Amino acid sequence: MTAITALKTKDLINVGIYSALYFICMGIAEGATTLITGLLLPGFTSIFVPGIVGLLAGPVYMLLCQKVPRFGAITIMGILMGLFFLISGHFALAFIPYALCGLVADLIQSLAAKAEQPKRGLRLLGYTVFTFGSMGPVIPLWFMKNAYVASLVKRGKSQDYINTLFSHITGPTLFACIAITVAGAVIGAYWGGKLVDKHFAQGQGTNRG
């Protein structure tokens, strides 16, 4: 059983490193999705981005769980990702989902770290919850349209941009976004766990979480 203890200086350094790697995965996911959907499915970028983030960032999350099996690490990473949304000009409330999802995922991971039996399912669940934090910038598209439009106008976005952004924001696309996010997270967690177990698990002993 892995003891859940206070984060140490080395742990905080590792959290910073893995947060930077996760940030890079987010950037790649957003850039690639914007390019592909811009060519093939204009207006659908926001629906696909969270799922692509989940698909690409799985190894980073699993490696963080492996290297820093202590409560607080995932919460900090979630807060850092939320702060990135906040300072990069996204809708103000985009910070909240990553912070909350990070905390819940951390609680799930703490259960996984203390489990005697294999805990791959708990890690997968935790990562899926964490990935929903990446929906922070897009959730207001469905539930806070007027405030979101006002924020876009304040940022100097054109009416054509706003119309394109909202052209496919409907009830069915909300469920599609959720389904794509879950699918991306599950696949990302699966291949991320396999990759970490293959290349980083040896010699970890009881610290595997």
TrEMBL record:
InterPro entries cross-referenced by the UniProt entry: CHP02185_IM (IPR011733)
One Pfam family here: Trep_Strep
Superkingdom of this protein's organism: Bacteria
Listed transmembrane segments: 12-29, 35-64, 71-89, 95-112, 124-143, 173-192
Keywords of this entry: Membrane, Transmembrane, Transmembrane helix
Entry protein name: ABC transporter permease
Organism field: Bombiscardovia apis
Species lineage: Bacteria, Bacillati, Actinomycetota, Actinomycetes, Bifidobacteriales
